[in-house]
Amino acid sequence: MTISRAGSAPANVDSENARSRSDRYTRVAIALHWAIAAFIIFNLATGFFMESWPTPVRLFALQLHLSSGLTVLALTVARVVWRLVNPPPPYPAGMKPWERHTAHFAHFLLYAAMVLMPLTGWAILSAHPPPGSPGAAARAAASRPTPAAPRVGLKLGAAPPVAMSARPQGGGLMIWYVIPMPAITPIEAVGEQPGGLPPQHKLHEEFVSWHTVGGWLLLGLLFLHIAGALKHQMIDKHAEFARMGIGKSRTLDCQHRSAALAEWRQVMASGHNSPDLTAAKRRQVVVGLTAPAAALGCV
Fold first, then answer.
1. Which residues pair with 180 in a beta bridge?
2. Which of 14, 89, 94, 103 counts the highest number of beta carbons within 10 A?
3. C-alpha pair distances (Å), 175 with each of 1, 68, 70, 225, 260
4. pLDDT (tens digit, 9 = 90+) per residue, 172-187?
């Protein structure tokens, strides 16, 4: 066996790199994961507090809130399609069966929330009479002179108000201030005539309730997801962060160090003599390789 340099990596680094990449999500999946996470955190932050903000600020926050929510819906659909075409990496071998089942169930609930939360928010904003319809005219005549902004936030500790909130005059809601937000036609059509206003109001309040409960459930799932990732990373010593693009894969570190350690042990066992490899130097290299490998849980 020929050793060119102490501690040099084995010749099959390329194959090891390929195996290491199998422990990570694809770059597209990683980008979708972090983009969705950022939008969800933003929407939870605005959704829980914007009901208490002044109307002009609340309307601005509403535009961003609905834009972010519908973006989450679109990105979630893209992520599901990508996941079907590109299966995720397997769970670490040391993961217990109950942990795998819990992870699968938590992921299912997260995906469900990422679809249902934007849909219920969209339904809230659609539960208003079509602009220019008899129902819109009847509601305008019965409303206060300065109607409130659309109520879609998750106001902490507050019961839904009795009065039906209004969209900006003539609609006016835009997705990222570029694309007009379409209403969900069947929900909007309920209030087309004045007689449909009471049932539409009831629908509106039900959607608000569902959206509020969903917000709390999503917050709980988010904390559960983060706690699970920290547990696997810090306690189980799995490269959980590396799977989502943060840090170096522990698998590749272990492969490099274990392969190099095995190679040096073979050199020592065979009594290989080299002018550059004294007994003291051999022991130093083995100790230097073994200690980091043990710290990584490789040996």
1. 174
2. 103
3. 65, 8, 8, 29, 55
4. 788 999 999 999 999 9
